[in-house]
## 1
Amino acid sequence: MERNYDVIIVGGGATGTGTLRDLTRRGLKVALVEQGDLASGTSGRFHGLLHSGGRYAVKDPESARECMEENTTLRRIAPHAIDVQEGLFVQVEGDDPAFADRWAQGCAASGIPVREIGVAEALRRDPCLHPRTTRVFTIPDGSVDSWRLTQANVRDAQAHGANVLLWHRLEAIRVENGRVTGVELEDLQHKARVRLGCRMLVNATGAWAGKVGRLADIDIPMALDRGTMIVFDHYYSPRVVNRLRLPGDGDILVPVGSVSILGTSAVPVQDPEERTTDASEVQRLIGIGAEMIPALASARVFRTFTGIRPLYRPPQSSGGQRDISRGLVVLDHEETDGLAGMVTIVGGKLTTYRLMAEKVSDVVATRLGVTRPCTTAVEPLLQSAGEYAPLLAPGAAEAAGTTPEAMNIRRARRLFSYLPAAEAAELVRRGSGPLLCECEGVDEAELVAAGKAAGHLDLADVRRRTRLGMGPCQGTLCAWRAGGVLHRAGLASAERANKALVTFLDGRWQGVRHSPTLQQLRAAEVTRGLYLGNLNIPSLPGISRASAPFEAAAAESQVAVAEVAATEAQAAGIAAAEPVLQEVHR
């Protein structure tokens, strides 16, 4: 039987879930459809920066102003998702000395508060900065957790009657007499066809917006670009550090969880699934980042990953990828394409997701004759935390730094994001038990709660709720423990737990495989040896040898080791890489 809604939203990232929350609070019957888990696309693959807008103050003042306004709003409504509260913009020798004053003027014009501090004071507070730093400004950048945001948006929307269909892929858009009337979905878990009817369809799929448009025979001109990010093994600064120059590659370092993330690049791509990078790009970014923070040149890189920016390119635009506005764009297809009942939201950044949701919801509300205003800028995302509210307050995690206390605060923030308040409070009250993931402070009780909340058993779904396996060991020591716990808790058969384990390890390998350092490749070899030799992963029940990741990874790892060894050997003036390779395998 077909279910009917006022609005169907396609896309479970920050903008899609923000739109879900907005429209349900306006009294509409809304369903959200996502082909994977929440924030498993671009929203879950970014550097974690809560933008102040300073990055765009010179070239894109409208985007800068939007960022600062939404930065302030998110600090008010979603403090549980923000761990770091301050940022720096630093200029080093060789940068254009005149740019700093232009930038400060642009910040002032966009309403972004900045304060210049002396270089000596900056180096005292952040000794990681380059000693040849010439000017330093403080700015209200921060780090924000996209998974906590999206999960809290969904919880709030569900409390207002929303329906959320994860692991449902959009297969067709039904159009009758020039109007969208519904969608056809594939339930990926149960291999079943699902039909839904609607009065309006919102395309909030980000980088996939063009593909969704083609299902309705409309063209949405996108300019996709891939950004590569590099994960280092610890904090270098308790603040976000930005390069004080026009936006470019490798000029942001963000402290996130227990690690630091350097970003990013801007490489044009044709497909949102085109997320491959290589060791040479990673090395280039590290070299640029080291001009700002010298320790990055010799730091341990234990993961790289990429995300796709969903930039909108108007037909009349020209210039390169860096010249395209990062601002939001709402397309009402009744006006632009003569197709009633469908709107698309593209562009923007995670920092402006709530504003993007408000703008597209205004268009939907007008089309449906709804006059109730948006309330998402004033209503907090987490409605009740009781005695644990101080753990979710602004600055709580930052004040504790990277101590065990900070780890417990981040654990509480995760739990309140995706669990009912009473259940989250009970787990916080009990405290952390024996840890499964020492890097991120995940214990058995949290893992089981996350597994139940995820529904679809995939350790990556659990990871997005807990950060399991996102620390320096990249799942080597916690993944097999997690699989066993989920099986013992009755959430997965042995076969399914084993399959989830192999899939998870494959995902972790994809981020390790382009590491440009022998140090991390040695660690990857240890991981491979553990799972191949000790746990015999390829022959676990239900797993065919062909599907196991480490069979192919073995050869690929050897190639990667050889490439990096050759590069390091050349840099050291060694004639051949063989001595270095021998050292790797000792």
## 2
Amino acid sequence: MSLNKKTKKFKKIDTGITIILLIGIFIVINFFSYQIFYRWDLTQNKIYSISKVSKRTVGELDDIVNIKAYFSDNLPSQVLSIKQEVADILDEYAAFSNGKIRVEFIDPNDDEDTQRELYMIGIPQLTFEVYEKDKRQLVNGYMGIAISFEDKTEAIPAIKSDTRDLEYQLTTAIKKVITDEIATIGFLTSQGTASLENDISTAKSKLQELYTVREVVLSEEQSSIPPDIDTLIIVGPKEEFSEDELREINAFLVRGGALLGLIDGVDIGEGLTASINKSGINKLFSQYGLTMNRDLVADNRSGMASFTQGFMTFSTNYPYWPKITSDGFNKDNSAVANLENVILPWVSSIDVDSSKIAEEGYVKLAHTTDKGWSVANNFNISPNGSMSPGANQKQYVLAAYFSGMLEDAYPEEEAEEQYPFFGRLALVGDSDFIYEGFIGNTPDNLTFFLNLVDILSFDEDLISIRSKSASSRPIKEGLSDSARAGYRYFNVFGVTIIVMLFGMIRYYMRRRSRFVDEL
């Protein structure tokens, strides 16, 4: 037998042994993968694996939590992948729960008792369109989840096709069933504030997923805030507060309540007319050291706005809609650390009085770039008007938060000595950002609002889950046109070219190796 033939024979034997060893290693790894749960998630915010908050929540459970996923077997093919995604997420919850999470998948289509039970807990029967044999058919089915602990049950009525927020829904539901007390949120509905049903219905419905939401009215007939309200939210008041009403809000803070104000320093009317807001609520915030100026802030970094002129509609970058991106948020505060794209239309600036609030309790949440400017009178906010920044370009604070000792704005006159109290409040110089017309195009606006409510009311941990998925990844500012074009062409063609080059190099190396073997 020639030397070449012996060499080839040994190579075949080595190859066979290598294949057998690889198969053996694969079998061992596969066995241990069933015993040890782990998932590699290479995304920046770990959007395809549950967060540390969720792991800690289920890892600290004292008793069994049952999760029942109701998925019909006759679901159309386009939603079958959702069932697998849900199963993967629930497997992760169960793996980190030390046996305290029990997951069960149920097909309720043929069980009338189960269907009645689902109706009672709020999981509806859904209707899907199915195309079979060139015919369009309607099929009924279920895609919901029930989370139960002892005698409490929370439902996720319908799983969305995008499951990115499913972790937030699941962890929130688990926290609700294992927690005895959930905060009550009060929306002030007097003094010309935003309508809960028409203006901010989405924001209200999202809060209701976790909190109890109630309306609060301040008037001569009803001048007190109910004692069960934990956080009071004031959105865009336009009518003047009386001294008694301001005094009642102060008393609410003194007794331990939290206050969130989304206040417009300038009211925008029809035809883009602008006038100073005269609600007087700013007087109260100023007493606590946060003063909202009666100005409008503009910025070179701004959102796109659509305007109608005659019979023509056009869109343009509108400086009076400052856009806050990653570098405009406080990275040390969980409420805003992961936000990427918030637009605050017709926003006013906020000043802090360091003589009234301690520096360690004050947090600047959001600010403009250093190219921002403000207009305090002679408002001309038409897109065709003059928008020159002038000489007052600087960074402006647009949202602030404080937690610490505050001076009583309305101290008791008969008291011999006045004592400060511990207070929590947040102020944003704009209310329009959570209106229906804005949150649809800028989802981070809603996340920003919900996070503010969370840090005032319940659990900061939930913020890290809700903010995991950034809605915008803008290209870094300051790049030249040629650099931007380079990034764009690389994204379109670069990866493809790299893969092709790798394939060609690999093909050349294999041919070269084969040629050497034949020598």
